[in-house]
Amino acid sequence: GAVVSQHPSRVICKSGTSVKIECRSLDFQATTMFWYRQFPKQSLMLMATSNEGSKATYEQGVEKDKFLINHASLTLSTLTVTSAHPEDSSFYICSATAPVGFETQYFGPGTRLLVL
Amino acid sequence: QQQVKQSPQSLIVQKGGIPIINCAYENTAFDYFPWYQQFPGKGPALLIAIRPDVSEKKEGRFTISFNKSAKQFSLHIMDSQPGDSATYFCAASKDTDKLIFGTGTRLQVFP
C-alpha cells in the first residue's frame, strides 16, 4: 500500500508557541490530504480537508486561524498549530489519497503534541 | 445523518474466539465501508473494506458482512490472536471523500 509519513512523531512545546507538523506521501502524489485529531480513547475527528494548490476546507467548529493548513505540493501538507494551549494537546493524524487508482485514504503514523 | 454508530465499546475474547464488531449508518449515499485497526500511539491501518454491491468480503482471518437494507455492517475476526488486541474503527464515506468514523471498539484477546 501507499506510505504516508509524519514529522515529528512527538513534540512538546510551551503554551503560546506555534508548532508545525508535516505530512508527506512518500510513493504517490496525493491530490487530497486530510487532517484528524484524536483525543485519548476517542475516535478520529476530521479537522480539515486540503487539496493541492487550494485553500483547506475546515470542519465545523475548527478554527482555521488557529490550525493553519498548507498543501504546497502533491507530496506535502503541513499543519501549524498557532499559539498552542494545553487543550490543543492531542494526537494529530494525517491521511492522503489520490483520485486515480486509490480506493481509500492512507494514514500517517500520527504526531503526539503535548503543550505545557 | 452523517453518524456511524459502532458497538460494542469494548470486547474481551479468548484466543481462538470470533469477536464481532457491529456498525450502523444512516446516509444511504455512503458507498465505501472500511475497517481500520489502530495500535496505541500509531495511526490507523486499513484492514479490509467493502462496497454495497456485495454482502460479504473475506481477507485472511477478517470478514466483513454487509446488510444494505438494514444499513449495517460488521467485522468478524476468525481464530483471534493476542496480537489482534487493538482498537478497531469502522468508517463510511462517499467514494474517497471524507471518512466518517465510528466510535471505536477496544478488543482484548487473552491467551
Task: Outline the structure in words.
The complex is a heterodimer of chains A (116) and B (111). With 116 residues, chain A is mainly β. Chain A has strands at 4-7, 10-13, 19-25, 32-38, 45-51, 57-58, 67-73, 76-81, 90-97, 106-107, 111-115. Helices cover 0% and strands 51% of the residues of chain A. In chain A, the strands form two sheets. In chain A, strands 2, 4, 5, 6, 9, 10 and 11 form a seven-stranded mixed beta sheet that branches. In chain A, strands 1-3-8-7 form a four-stranded antiparallel beta sheet, with no helix packed on it. Chain B is built from no helices and eleven strands. The relative contact order of chain B is 0.34. Chain B has strands at 4-7, 10-14, 20-25, 33-38, 45-50, 56-59, 62-67, 72-77, 86-92, 100-101, 105-110. The mean pLDDT of chain B is 94. The A-B interface holds A 1, 4, 6, 32, 34, 41-46, 49, 91, 93, 95, 97, 99, 102-110, 112 and B 32, 34, 36, 41-46, 49, 89, 96, 98-99, 101-104, 106.
What oligomeric assembly is this protein in? heterodimer
Ranges of chain B where pLDDT stays below 50 over 5 or more residues in a row are: none
Distinct helical segment count of chain B: 0
Molecular shape of chain B: globular
Percent strand of chain A: over 45%
Helix content of chain B: under 10%
**Mean pLDDT across all amino acids of chain A:** 92
Q: Count every helix of chain A, treating DSSP H or I runs of 4 or more residues as helices.
A: 0
Rounded to the nearest angstrom, the distance between the terminal CA atoms of chain B is 40 Å
Largest sheet of chain B: 6 strands, mixed
Mean pLDDT of chain B: 94
Q: Based on helices, strands and strand pairing, what is the structural class of chain A?
A: mainly beta
Annotation, overall tally of beta strands of chain A: 11
Q: What is the string of SSEs of chain A from the N terminus onward?
A: EEEEEEEEEEE
Largest interface summary: A-B, 27 and 19 residues
Order of helices and strands of chain B: EEEEEEEEEEE
Strand content of chain B: over 45%
**Principal-axes shape call of chain A:** globular
Which value, in Å, is the CA radius of gyration of chain A? Answer: 13 Å
